Amino acid sequence: MMKKVLLVCTVPSLESYSIGIISAAFANKSINCYAYIFLDGKDQRSEKELVFAYGVSDVRQQVQFCYLATNKIIRFLSSSIYLDKVKRFAFSQVIQEIHFISQDIILARHLSKFKKFNLYYTVHDFVPHPAKLNFFQGLKHYYLRIRKDKYLMSQIKNLVTNSVSQLRALQKRYPDKNVRWHRMPTMLTNEILMGNEVVPELGEIEGYVLFFGRIEVYKGIEGLYREFINNPKLSKIILVIAGKGSLYFKRDKTKEANIVFINRFIKEKEVATLFKKAKLLVLPYHSATQSAITSLAYYFKKPVVGSAIEGLNESILHMETGLLYPPEQFDQLTSMIIRLYVDGHLYRKIETNLTTEQPIYDLFKLGDELAVIYQSHL
């Protein structure tokens, strides 16, 4: 009999990641997969739309959706109730293996509820990313996220990561634990694949350098912005910064003639348009454990220019799928961007690689890696 495994995602904002993992697990014939998915209380999608988004129409009876309270305080205080639902579902389906795939902040206080199960926990950020927070925000971030994440890493025997460098760090820190790696899932979802919604802020603009993702300090957006407003070599190239989040740096709007900010949540139906009209994707990160953003660029055949840090250099192959530059050296970032605009041969070579080569975000390979992980628990 195949082993039953329950995948649990308690963080709605990680939906694209969850869809990738769930799709790969359900596609693998060696895993008898179930899923328990928590949704934002404001999510107004119908059941039909949810089933389509997660691609689980054939296994609907093995998937549970649960809506979280819209009020964050009530949501936090209801953690025990939410996790009791997960536990009851696992018992009702006679499941012994539970994999929490989110960076989980509600599980730490109630881990004892699952002492009769074999648990797996995905570590997203072994070393927390730097963030620009005031004193009280820093305390909240530490006590509600970082400390709980560390506690779960210390208590759960089976740890999972998507980063090779993070795998080595975890094995060194926890030599007695079962630490396993699997590749990052793609961020492509059915909504993205079917989407063709116009991005109103773009108008007729195309052929631009694209930064896409939530605005965070560790992603190096300020350095990218400064380079575009100060380096005359980039004056005729348009930069589009698309993503939700606080713009933590001071802007000089008098120099933004070639910069477009789309500082809001980007709907999945808009993603295809955003990437199709771009020339390339840029990832000027200061730090990263992994990134699935490149999966979108590769699907739409767009080269990626990124800093050569651990995490990114696992997904960007220099001169093959994009270009890497030394971290923090934004003059080199400029050189790489310009090179892809002027060197048509190199651009076409990378475009061809992305068209013909086996993608690193392979659904079936990911499923095989998950199957191996579930066969080797402590």
TrEMBL record:
Q: Which Pfam families match?
A: Glycos_transf_1
GO function terms (MF aspect): glycosyltransferase activity
UniProt key word Calcium = no
Residue span of the signal peptide, if any? none
InterPro entries for the chain: Glyco_trans_1
Q: What are the record keywords, sorted?
A: Transferase
The protein in question is named: Glycosyltransferase
This chain's source organism reads: Pedobacter kyonggii
